[in-house]
Amino acid sequence: MSCGAVYAVCALSTTTLSFVLPAAECDFHLSSSDKGRLTATPLIGMCVGSYFWGNLADARGRRKAIIGALLLDALAAFLSSLMQSFPAFLACRFFSGFGIIGATGLIFPYFGDFLSLRHRDVMLCRLEVFWTFGTILLPGIAWLIIQDPRFNLTSETADFQYTSWRVFVAACGVPSLFVVLLLMPFPESPRYLLYANKTEQALQVLQKIFVVNTKLTEKDFPVESMLACDGEEEEVVTADTNGNETKTPMTWNQRWHSFWSRKKMLVTPPYIGMLVLCCFVDFGLMFSYYTLMMWFPDLFERFSQFSSLYPEVSAGVCEVSANVTRSELLGKQECPQVIDDKVYIHTLIVALSCIPTALWVGLTINMVGKKLMLVMMLISSGLAALGLNLVRSSLENLILSCVFEAIVSCTEAVLFCVICEIFPTKVAATAMAVTVMCGRVGAIVGNVVFGALVDQHCIVPIYMFGSLLITSGLLCTILPKSTRPERPH
């Protein structure tokens, strides 16, 4: 529950800007291209931060890195709410992305280190349910704060503005502080402590787990001492004068040779082909998913404005975007712009639609098979994305958005499970990091492209979304079976 709460906060922080796009439009005089830059900036921070937090977690521990990442995200949220210029706001959102990717990327291995091999896939997939809770919580917070004039803490003529959407941005940083308190009672990953050759601390953690689970005392724990054991690549086994085995760290030359041997393994057949394929899949997936996830509230707002400007006229997404440009809206409506209540309701419905899929994936992933599930989800989400060209009303757009979001929201988690299965243990983490990096690059490109084309040529990115997802699904059919031994029953 605590790790799930952290993951829900990651979803909340990652998607905060989806409601800032329409709400902050007047204050910063945002064009669609500016909105693309705004949604892309935290992603750039994520690309930079993923490497930093990964190294910090290896050096100082998973738990400490997660807590540090959450604190940085909260600080960036509070500071960004104070920024009065668009460039300064962008800079703060960069550090928000830099921070939250640490918690997003490390909560999976931290949680997984406490799980048995037999239950690991199912339990990790269940974290996706909490991501959905975070996306459900976001429109609720936005509706309570952004729409309430009492949260406009300064007058419209004041030099320093602190309007309701700024209060909303600051409020989205509070849950990060809350989940830090939830993590405080929990120990460091015992697997990390063994990897770091901190055997006494690892033993203490396992004793604590034993006491909680069995209600017995630490003296009843059947293990008296532990030996760091992560394979010959990490440690060298020797014996002391009494004949007891001990572990000594490898020399720098040995570690350097081990590092390059793993990298060399990853860039040679057959692993290089699998890595390129996984990178392409995650690039296309995040290009489509993250872009539409961030733009859904803005698209719903455009449909609302179109309905008020042209009542009883049916139109598709691209026609609405072409006719309801921001300059036209600002000419017909005074600032601050008020977001229609339907936008919050529709966004909430889209988030709720993800719950059945998240539960279904966790229950059936081992029965259906990861590879088949991945192929099915990619192709069906691609068809749903292409269907956005066919909708003719706000209701049709809402229904198809729910179908798309429900399918694609869990697809990356299934991809991560596949990566852990097809790559050997010693290169799986590197393969995962490279794949996630390509996915974030895809999200950056997708937001910039969509922001540049949504007003006049939105049919182009929609076809790109659908074709990338369907192509990725077809390519996944050539992925090999697991390289790991069968799991124990």
Automatic annotation (TrEMBL):
PROSITE patterns: MFS
Cellular component, GO, one term: membrane
Domain of life per record: Eukaryota
Gene3D superfamilies: MFS general substrate transporter like domains
Primary location class: membrane
Domain named Major facilitator superfamily (MFS) profile: residues: 1-484
Gene Ontology molecular function: transmembrane transporter activity
Membrane topology field: Multi-pass membrane protein
Database matches in SUPFAM superfamilies: MFS general substrate transporter
Cross-referenced Pfam families: Sugar_tr
Location(s), subcellular: Membrane
Membrane-crossing residue ranges in chain numbering: 36-53, 65-82, 88-111, 123-145, 165-184, 271-292, 343-365, 372-392, 398-419, 431-454, 460-479
Family according to the record: Belongs to the major facilitator superfamily.
Protein name: Major facilitator superfamily (MFS) profile domain-containing protein
Lineage start: Eukaryota, Metazoa, Ecdysozoa, Arthropoda, Hexapoda
